[in-house]
Design a protein that fits this description.
By secondary structure, this protein is of the alpha/beta class. It folds into 2 domains: 51-60 and 288-379, Aspartate Aminotransferase, domain 1 (Alpha-Beta Complex), CATH 3.90.1150.10; 80-285, Type I PLP-dependent aspartate aminotransferase-like (Major domain) (Aspartate Aminotransferase, domain 2, 3-Layer(aba) Sandwich), CATH 3.40.640. The chain is built from 11 helices and 13 strands. Strands 2-8-7-6-5-3-4 form a 7-stranded mixed β-sheet, with helices on both faces. A 4-stranded antiparallel β-sheet has the order 9-10-13-12, with helices on one face. A two-stranded parallel ribbon has the order 1-11. Bound molecules: 4'-deoxy-4'-aminopyridoxal-5'-phosphate (PMP).
Length: 381
C-alpha cells in the first residue's frame, strides 16, 4: 500500500516519537460513496499501435489553414483572464453553422460533459433514463454516477431500435430522460426524423438525440428543424469526430432555451477553456475542409464495407458513421492478432450485449484502411 500522507517538509524538526507500526495505524481515509462500489474507471482501450482504428477519431491532423487561423487568434488572446463561460463568439459561429438561434446553443467540454450535465439536471435519484443498448457507454456510466434509474429497451435481432416498443414504453409517462444516438455507436444506424418526431410527441421526457457522427450521415437524418416545434428535444454534436479535434474536448448541444438555461445551473462555468473555444472557431471558419474530408471518409466507408463483406463468413452492418460494425467469426482472437502481428488496433465489442463476434472498425486514411484489410485477410488466410 502506498502512504496516504505526504512526507513532511524536510526543514521541519523530526518527530520525537517513532511513527506507529503500519498494523496499528488508524485508517486514514474514509471509504468513498457506496454508489461507486460497482464502478470501474472508464478505459478507452487506446493501446499503442501503428494503425489506430479503434476510437472513431479523424485520421487527419489540423489543416494548415485551420491551424494558421487558430494560432493567429491565440496570439492576441489574454490567457491570464478567465474565459467567457458561454464562449459567446464560438456560440455565434455554431448558431450560424447550424442555422439555429444563439440561445439554442450550449457548449461543453466534449459531448461527454453535456451528457453528464443532462443527467445532473434531468436524472438523479428517483428519476429514470431510457436507453436502447448497445449504444454509447457514457449514458449508462453517467446514469450510475448520478444515481439515475436505468431502463433499457432491447434492440431487434438486426440491431435496430424497436420503434413500436419504444413508443409504447414512453406512453406510460414514467420516463424523465431518453438518450439515443443517430448514427448510433457502435451499430452505425440512424433514426429518421419522422420517427424522432413521433417520439417527441409521445412523451414530455427530455429526448437527447446524440448526433456525434452526423457529418458522415445522409443529410436526411439532420433533425435540427424539429427544434422549433419541440422543446423536449436536445441534439448533441461534437468537434471530436469529423472536425478532427478529439484532443481539444469540445462539444455542443442544440436545444430550446428552457433546456440550455436549465443546464447552466449544473454546468461548470469554465469547463470550456479559451484555447479550445478558439480551436472551435477556427474549425468552423474552415468548415469546408471538414466537409471535404468527411466526404472522403464516406467514400472509404463504402469501399471498406464492400471489401469486408466479400470475405467469407463476415457480416457488415450498414453504417452512416465513420466506422463499421462487423460480425466476424473468432472476433476476439482476430482482434488480438491484428494488434500483435500487424500493429492494427480496432475495437473489440464481442463481449457487449447482443454483439457476439463483433468488431468495430473506424474508417482511416485510404492507406490505413488498406493496411487493416490486408491484415484481416492475412490473419484469416
Ligand atoms: N456520443 C457518441 C455517440 C460518441 O461515440 C462519442 C465519443 N465516442 C461522444 C458522444 C462523445 O464525444 P466527445 O466527448 O469526444 O465529444
Amino acid at each position: 500500500m502506498t502512504s496516504s500522507l505526504r512526507p513532511s517538509d524536510p526543514a521541519l524538526p523530526a518527530p520525537s516519537a517513532a511513527p506507529n507500526p503500519p498494523s496499528s495505524r488508524q485508517p486514514s481515509l474514509r471509504p468513498p460513496s457506496p454508489r461507486l462500489a460497482k464502478l470501474v474507471p472508464y478505459d478507452p482501450k487506446n493501446l499503442p499501435a501503428k494503425v489506430l482504428l479503434s476510437a472513431n477519431e479523424s485520421p487527419y491532423g489540423l489543416a494548415d489553414e485551420t491551424q494558421a487561423r487558430f494560432l493567429e487568434a491565440l496570439a492576441t488572446t489574454e490567457l491570464n483572464r478567465y474565459p467567457d463561460p458561454l464562449a459567446r463568439d464560438l456560440r455565434t459561429k455554431i448558431a450560424d453553422f447550424c442555422a439555429v438561434p444563439e440561445q439554442y446553443v450550449l457548449i461543453g467540454n466534449g459531448g461527454d460533459e453535456l451528457i453528464f450535465n443532462l443527467l445532473l439536471a434531468w436524472g438523479g435519484p428517483g428519476r429514470r433514463l431510457l436507453i436502447t443498448p448497445p449504444s454509447f457507454g457514457s449514458y449508462e456510466l453517467f446514469s450510475q454516477l448520478t444515481g439515475t434509474d436505468l431502463l433499457t429497451l432491447a434492440r431487434t435481432k438486426d440491431m435496430r431500435i424497436d420503434e413500436a416498443a419504444l413508443l409504447e414504453r414512453l406512453g406510460r409517462g414514467d420516463v424523465d430522460l431518453v438518450m439515443f444516438a443517430s448514427p448510433n455507436n457502435p451499430t452505425g444506424d440512424c433514426l429518421h426524423p419522422a420517427f424522432i418526431e413521433r417520439v417527441l410527441a409521445a412523451t414530455d421526457a427530455l429526448v437527447l438525440l446524440d448526433q456525434a457522427y452526423i457529418e458522415f450521415a445522409d443529410a436526411a437524418y439532420d433533425a435540427t428543424h424539429l427544434l422549433d416545434r419541440f422543446e423536449n428535444l436536445a441534439i448533441l454534436r461534437t468537434f471530436s469526430k469529423a472536425f478532427g479535434l478529439a484532443g481539444v474536448r469540445l462539444g455542443y448541444l442544440l436545444a430550446s432555451p428552457l433546456v440550455t438555461e436549465t443546464l447552466c445551473k449544473v454546468r461548470q462555468p469554465y469547463s470550456v477553456d479559451a484555447v479550445s473555444a478558439l480551436a472551435g472557431i477556427a474549425a468552423l471558419d474552415t468548415a469546408e475542409i471538414m466537409q471535404k474530408r468527411a466526404a472522403i471518409t464516406v467514400a472509404q466507408r463504402t469501399r471498406v464495407a464492400a471489401a469486408l463483406a466479400a470475405l467469407p463468413g463476415v457480416h457488415v452492418f450498414d453504417s452512416e458513421a465513420n466506422f463499421l460494425l462487423v460480425r466476424i467469426e473468432g472476433a476476439a482472437g482476430l482482434w488480438q492478432r491484428l494488434l500483435d502481428e500487424h500493429g492494427v488496433l480496432v475495437r473489440d465489442f464481442s463481449r457487449a450485449l447482443g454483439l457476439a463476434d463483433c468488431l468495430r472498425v473506424s474508417i482511416g486514411t485510404p492507406a490505413e484502411n488498406d493496411a487493416m484489410l490486408e491484415a484481416i485477410r492475412c490473419v484469416r488466410r
